[in-house]
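Write out the 3D structure for:
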Amino acid sequence: MDLNDAVTYYTDLLHSSAPFGETLAWTVVRPVQGPPPSVEDVASRLTGGGSPVLVESDEEFTEEAVFMDGPPVYLGATGAVIMLTEPSGFSYAARQQVMAWLSQDAQVWHLSWNVAGTPGLEYAAHGRYLARIPSLEPESLYGVDPGALEEEAAALQAVAGAPWPAQKATAMAVIEARTGARLPGDWYEHPRTVATIDPLLGEECPPIGPAAPRAGSGRQTPPGGSGAPPYDPAAPDRRPDRAVRPRLGRRHPSQASGARPPADRRRSAGGRDGRVGDPR
């Protein structure tokens, strides 16, 4: 894929009246083996295999969302991938334990920014949270496997210092290049399945990926912060997804607590059949 075309698209999107210029929390789940997950499957992973309440968004949904028990996560299928968005830009799906669950037999890319926090590009695969680029600054790349985002970091480095929104548009284009998913400007204008997350997935929820990483070298923590357990880059299970990741194309040319939703709109995400019902 030529990254330039996607960068142009997202530059125009961020300049448009779409809500993504100020706030974005965008997650894409791309399967790497087995059948593509359903929206209900992915919604269940958001709570560690639980059964979050699902509702269908419509014109009145924005007002109802204010009174929901947990954060609303919008889901939609595009081809073989599932996209998730969170309107506030304060992301629940970006929690490391949530991304680990979402990445079961899959690769997960996440990108977010909001009016109060720093942006970040994050990646998980095969039940393991691997790497993050905080503030979209390539030199800040860290994780148990920083190499998982080395090409993405290089794409961002190519637009370092360029005028807004070059970095953000490039990060969005990278996700499209990796997954084939394009975020449309009218995403929130169409009916979507929305998972209301309650209870939230906590750190005590057991991981689903491989056993705890072994000791090794590499930059594993952000400056002044705590990170994931040490990871051995030479371990046999390192980057089992690398062979199936689409490659990036050319770089960007620029160098310069509340009430529950109505019962008749709920359904459970606990099973593949999407049966209607309140799991509470």
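The chain has six helices and ten strands.
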